[in-house]
Amino acid sequence: MEQRVLLCDTTLRDGEQAPGVAFGWPEKEMIARALVDAGIDELEVGVPAMGAAEAKKISQLAALNLPVRLITWNRVVLSDLLASYRTGVEGVAISIPTSEQQIKHKLNKDRAWLLDQMGQCVRNAKQEVGYIVLGMEDASRADINFLKEIITEAKKLGVDRIRFADTLGIMDPLNVFFTLQDLTRRSRIPLEFHAHNDLGMATANSLAAVQAGFKAVSVTVGGLGERTGNAALEEVAVALKYCLKREVGLDFKHLNSIASIVSSATDRKIPRAKPIIGADVFTHTSSIHIDGIQKDYANYQTFPPESVGRKHSAAFGKDTKFKNVVRLLKSRGMNYDHDTVNELLGKTLDKVHQLNRPLEEEEILGIVLSS
């Protein structure tokens, strides 16, 4: 049996970098507890170097003694790490720019300096925390041979996991699969893929990384994150199980409640068609689809909605048929003669055209009760 894929949630760090998002302590605690209750493997909970207020929230999370590993994000700077140690978290992520673009034009340094700084920081962290993630920032634009050099050095230093970050979201699934296979063959350290969604491929790229041999993926609830966001927790988790047949430790029935908590905390509505958690993703309007679903959900659904705490529903549009109305009435314990159903169907279609949209089941029942 293949090893379970680790889901490393960074909603409380990268997710909070989304424009206009800032979590207070109550929101941080609520989101953390909800994710832990669902069975998340790891939480990246913030950046202590941002200041005293952020460090205090992280310390409060650590003091909860949640049954999950908490890590913080840090630059490859000793002062960042010192701020993290004081919070009491179990682990740290140390991020190093790996592309020539960032090494030269962000840090104004060279590779030798970077490797030396990495060594100093990792050796220091080994004395203070129990788990170290080495984050290779902008790895998708880096020289692959330099990445291999970093991985070799990380092994010598005793790093626990290496994070490959597609920081600009420029990779595609085939590129991910064929490029990263070479890294997994060479790495004795588990690899994690951190996707960004700039081109809409974060979920697909995360799955491709797992197929290439990566053991962990970074995710955020609803894909929350900087710019266009990250790989969505709910999409990656469900796709791992139902597309790749891989095991994850998450209870999918918690996904909608977690999404609602984050939606409320960020004041961002969940799009109706958002995979897994959107209001419409298990709603069928076509009479052909409704008929097929009622016979066997597998006719028009990849997996049963009950597996993610949802259920099928129907919306009645311009192609609604007689039998669709009959089935709805029977499902609610109502029986009407042929003429009455025809009259109800006519009223339904009139209302659809009047509103220029499909009607929900409850709206149809409202027409029944008002007749």
From TrEMBL:
The name this protein goes by in its record: Homocitrate synthase NifV
Lineage of origin: Bacteria, Bacillati, Bacillota, Clostridia, Eubacteriales
Organism field: Desulfosporosinus lacus DSM 15449
Keyword Transferase: yes
Superkingdom assignment: Bacteria
Family (UniProt): Belongs to the alpha-IPM synthase/homocitrate synthase family.
Keyword Transmembrane helix: no
InterPro entries registered for this protein in UniProt: AIPM/Hcit_synth_CS, Aldolase_TIM, LeuA/HCS_post-cat, NifV/FrbC, PYR_CT
CDD domains: DRE_TIM_NifV
Stretches assigned to the Pyruvate carboxyltransferase domain: 5-256
Keywords on record: Transferase
Gene3D superfamilies documented for this protein: 1.10.238.260, Aldolase class I (3.20.20.70)
One GO MF term: acyltransferase activity, acyl groups converted into alkyl on transfer
Pfam families, sorted: HCS_D2 (PF22617), HMGL-like (PF00682)
GO biological process: carboxylic acid metabolic process
